[in-house]
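> tool_call: predict_assembly(chains=two)
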Amino acid sequence: MSSQALTPNGTPEPAPRPPMNFNTPALRLNFTIRKALNNVVSGLALLATLLVLVPLAAILVYLFYKGFSSLNYNFFTKIPAPPGVEGGGMANSIVGSGIVLALASLMGIPVGIAAGVYLAEFGRGRMLGNAIRFTADVLNGVPSIVVGISMYALIVKPQLHFSAFAGGVALAVMMIPTITRTTEEMLATVPHSIREAALGLGVPKWRTTLSVALRTASPGIITGCMLAFARVAGETAPLLFTALGNEFMSTSLNGPIDALPLRIYKYANSPFDEWHRVAWAGSLVLILMIMVSVTLVRIFASRGVLKGGN
Amino acid sequence: MGVGILVEHLNAWYGTTHTLQDINLHIPANHATALIGPSGCGKSTFVRCLNRMHETNPIARATGTVKMGDVDIYADASPVEIRRRVGMVFQRPNPFPTMSIYDNVVSGLKLNGFRNKKILDETAERSLKSAALWDEVKDDWKKKSGASLSGGQQQRMCIARALAVDPEVLLMDEPASALDPVSTSKIEDLIFQLKSQYTIVIVTHNMQQAARVAENTGFFLNGKMVEFDSTHKIFTNPSDKRTEDYITGRFG
């Protein structure tokens, strides 16, 4: 009996492997097609990126083109002048926007982050957690004009006057759902092992959440807050029924206050060419304010948070 | 100094799975005790019951008595206090990614409210020396991120972090399984030095490692502790057939 070849272990030698031929015409064609497809898809991705950047660049360039010439010292220091009178500015609108946005951020960011922390760390799988998550998602989709009318009914009407405070609340309500959901999602990306490391050192859960989980997730949370801020900074509708607008400089939280979007809306709707030019300048300033504040927060945040690998 | 641990009728569950079944064991103070057994046998669950980490999982539950010295950790103390006294080193190094090496090491103290900079600095240096990492990091330990160290260095930093809160017991859940042989031997040397001052419980899949570092070894199988004895006895003359089969590689 012809014995089968045995390996040193005594197990039978495996059958020889059939050669694998990658060089058939069909496989070569397949490879050519895949290479071409790879190039096509990469090209499409590049094209899509450009398409995203084109409107942004176009808006910025056009704003500079239309608005830059009307920017001068008066624009930043004077209050609006009547039509036909030279030398008016938007000082009251810039200050008003700053006040309303600061109020909105002061109210919206802490509440939004706290709700996000609850959802991520304590409310998982609970009825209350699911209810809050659902509410936040619905609130995110509520049209801004509806938020404005609601705040009119809830704050302006009982108080019998328009106010910067009501405007701040309306914008805060719009910021909260974005911040809440971003905070929740960013906390969910913090690895469980890092929380365990802190708990294992005898750090209480609340402290672990604040000083370890939130701190690790902070770059993403800051981005979420910036997005929410940038979104409401240009909102007009929620302010129409709350902050109302004001022709004069006002810094009172308890009275009507002007804001850049309101002023732009009013000037753009007017029949005067001069006002149209100033509206362009106002739009440019609004965009620049948003860009500057977002950049400042980013610089501030990257200094405060130690980055890996340096 | 370390304290001994007495475990009586310890049972643990994940949901409806009975992961630990009636474990009884005495872990002597200031010795290293190794736990071996195939994956899923309950060794990790067991060490997580020793610092009440097990219960941080919402579906997990444990019953029985675990006495650390005179303290019944399930009856007489809060989990936060127990975890301070029982340090833990995990399978994969888990540095705090936003913190420097120094901040990582003193994090347990800082997060518990210690503010005295002199004490923090001294403790950090002493802990890093104990963890045999000081010479490698002393130049930029306050600037360099803990996450930028190599895997083996990160694991020694995590050991330093555990030592900084002055624990009595050190639990190590496969501390070297994600590391290369050089880092592994550094960790083993470290365990050798530390066990005169701490009670060390080390889970390992590496039986040579158990033989090298531990005086006593326990063999777990399917949620039960099959055998617990001196390491020498377990590896040369085990009483139970299943232990012998496992250490000779016949299963598992």
